[in-house]
Write a structure and sequence with these properties.
Elements (H helix, E strand, L loop, with lengths): L1 H18 L2 H10 L4 H22 L8 H24 L5 H8 L2 H13 L5 H21 L6 H23 L6 H23 L9 H29 L1 H7 L2 H12 L7 H21 L6
Helix pairs in contact: 1-10, 1-11, 1-12, 2-10, 3-9, 3-10, 4-8, 4-9, 5-7, 5-8, 5-12, 6-8, 6-11, 7-13, 8-10, 8-11, 9-10, 10-11
């Protein structure tokens, strides 16, 4: 059991880091002239093709029961909403700021679990939430941004809520199947969902125009899609919804580090304090979950 919890904790950390690289690929593709619907369509579509090939090589069945299909449908719809609103928010505010605001989802997860699933909110959970929340505030202040777009904030909060519900449903859905099979259906819904969104919005899908753009499409399909989604299944299963959400503190931290290493953003005192607080929150929740039953 302890090995499972350790695996779940490591998977949650890795999933958060992978998901935190979303801005890197998205902003590069936006700069190349691609719109949100096209970026997400090729991200999900390529990831779906890769997952399908993996399942065929594993000779894994695609069959699901009616109950499993309902859960998978819910997961797919929630992930569509979360991804679309997050990527749209990048058009209204800095991606790093959006990534920090997105981190309200652990609080949403903890509150929903307490209200509807009677999960006890322990001192360690509250402490981790406070530390990680303070860390995110430090990251935000280090950005030096002025007035935020109301629409942008609304989009990120919608992304955070749908992501919180996604994590909870993944944990409570009781899906007895491989992570590849789960994400085959999630990515299928996401790909089809972007086709429907493009038609309703009157936005044609455009191909990436060069090798560099295709590289970033591949990056988005493999790292923050396949890797993050597969790892998230293990994290939610072995350490629970709330702990998985708190481990997601590494998402905004990853976004900040990308800014430092890729875009040469300055390293400030606020940034250093924020990183320390977030890492402290992750360490606390990880250590506690090694010795407590999964929720």
């Amino acid at each position: 059991m302890k090995n499972h919890k350790l695996l779940g904790t490591l998977a949650g950390i890795a999933a958060a880091i992978c998901y935190g690289t979303n801005p890197l690929g998205a902003l590069k593709l936006y700069a190349a002239g691609m719109q949100t619907n096209s970026v997400l369509f090729y991200r999900f579509g390529l990831a779906w093709v890769i997952i399908t090939i993996v399942m065929l090589l594993r000779k894994e069945s695609f069959r699901v029961t009616r109950q499993e299909f309902r859960v998978l449908t819910g997961l797919g719809l929630l992930f569509i909403v979360s991804s679309l609103t997050l990527y749209l928010s990048f058009l209204y505010m800095a991606a790093g700021v959006a990534s920090t605001i997105l981190f309200t989802y652990p609080v949403m997860t903890a509150v929903i679990m307490a209200l509807f699933f009677h999960e006890r909110i322990t001192f360690s959970t509250v402490l981790s939430l406070l530390l990680s929340g303070a860390g995110v505030v430090m990251l935000y202040w280090s950005d030096g941004v002025g007035t935020l777009s109301i629409l942008g904030v609304f989009l990120v909060l919608a992304s955070a809520l749908s992501y919180a519900l996604y994590i909870i449903l993944m944990n409570k859905g009781n899906l007895q199947m491989s992570s590849f099979k789960i994400n085959f259906y999630v990515l299928m819904y996401c790909t089809l969902g972007m086709v429907v969104y493009s038609l309703l919005a009157g936005m044609p899908l455009t191909l990436p125009q060069n090798t560099v753009s295709w590289f970033y499409v591949g990056w988005l399909a493999i790292v923050p899609a396949i890797f993050a989604l597969v790892l998230m299944v293990y994290a939610a299963k072995y350490v629970g919804s709330t702990a998985t959400a708190i481990l997601g503190a590494l998402e905004p931290l990853t976004a900040v580090l990308i800014g430092l290493l890729v875009f040469n953003e300055p390293f400030t005192t606020y940034l250093a304090v924020g990183i320390v607080l977030i890492l402290a929150a992750v360490v606390i929740i990880a250590m506690v979950k090694q010795n407590k039953p999964t929720t």
